[in-house]
Amino acid sequence: MLSLMSPIENEAVQTLIAVFEAVKNKDHAKLLDLHSSRGYTLFNDAPPYQLLEGEMGVRLKLSLMNQVQDISYKIRDLHLSVYGDVAYAAYELEMSGILVYQYRFEGQRWIRKARCTTVMVREDGSWKIVHEHFSHMGV
Fold first, then answer.
1. pLDDT > 70: what percent of the chain?
2. Which of 7, 13, 65, 117 could form a disulfide with 133 if both were Cys (CB 3.0 to 4.6 A apart)?
3. Three-state secondary-structure class, residue 6
4. pTM for the whole structure
5. Element (H, E) at 40
6. In the chain, at which residue ranges do the beta strands (DSSP E only) sit?
7. What is the rounded average pLDDT of the residues 90-100?
8. Which of 115, 123, 137, 111 lies closest to 35, judged by CA?
């Protein structure tokens, strides 16, 4: 699919991939930079099951980075559309890692499968995420 995309569509896809790479690499600064400073909303497939706005939504993503080790991810069935300065991506996501319990030297395998929608806007020449929606698919 990537070979059939325009340069602007490819930039949007690379932004989406950069988000998951930032999570995988625990790069807090990069993750924050990829989200819009004008506003961000998140519907997640993990508690709390409500719309999170601004800093609260980003904090939930940062907590994932702190609680899960050896994160890997796969993006499947990606569909991307660009309308001027707005892009949306619909895809299936599989993430896994080791959920580490604080203050104990043990953990358990963590797997997340979700149907996802990510909405991005162009700000100062780059794509920034303004909304994400994750719906649990089962494991």
1. 94
2. 117
3. coil
4. 0.89
5. none
6. 41-43, 52-53, 68-83, 86-100, 107-123, 126-136
7. 94
8. 123
Listed residue (42, 33, 34, 37) closest to 60, CA to CA:
42
Pick the CATH number of 2-136 from 3.40.50.1000, 2.40.420.20, 3.40.718.10, 3.10.450.50: 3.10.450.50
Q: The tokens 């990069």 sit on which residue?
A: 30
For 89, other C-beta atoms within 10 Å of its C-beta total 22
- Per-residue pLDDT of 115-131, as tens digits, reads 999 999 999 999 999 99
Is the alpha carbon torsion for 9, 11, 16, 20 positive or negative? positive
Name 53's bridge partners.
41
Neighbours of 70 (CB within 10 A): 12
Q: How far is CA 98 from the centre of its chain?
A: 18
d(CA 18, CA 107): 27
How many other CB atoms are found less than 10 A from the CB of residue 113?
18
Q: Which of 120, 114, 31 is nearest to 80 (CA)?
A: 120
